[in-house]
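Blinded run. Sample ID left blank on purpose so nobody reads anything into the name before looking at the predicted structure. Input follows.
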Amino acid sequence: MKTNIRGDKVEITKSMKNYIEEKLAKLDKYFKDGEVHSSVVVRVKNGLQTVEVTVPTSRFTLRAEESHQDLYAAVDLIIDKLERLIRKNKTKLEKHYKSAPEFEMSFDYEEELDENKDNEKIVKRKNVECKPMNEEEALLQMELLNHDFFAFKNLDEECVSVIYARKDGTYGILNVK
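Blinded prediction complete.
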């Protein structure tokens, strides 16, 4: 697995980089086809080390984030979390993508931060490229990203939809027509 590691307000040492790469290599056994690239961001805030890992593949995107006082413990926690996520959804992924049409399910986004506007309530913007999929695929992608919502082009309804997790543990869908 090829890994891009960067620090946000923290310098990544060689030993930190080696440890993260070694731990991420444990995930290689889950990916059969080709080389997989991962992106790792390490942040420090209020004494907590936060590690965020994103693994985009040709069909889906895995994402997890963990915080701990010790960076190495945070890396261990995030690898465990990613492995659990893969194992939990392995049969769904295999069933779903054996017959799926050939298109990427992951999405690319660009972050735009405008630091000149300190008084605005909106502090972050993302431009998201929506991929066409059905509601079941969108739910799976939302779970893999570990998000509370997911926007997608709904193949069934022929519109843009947002699937979201409700407080009672069920899911809802907003259709934009």
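Unblinding after everyone has recorded impressions. Residues 2-106 form a domain with the Double Stranded RNA Binding Domain fold (CATH 3.30.160.100).
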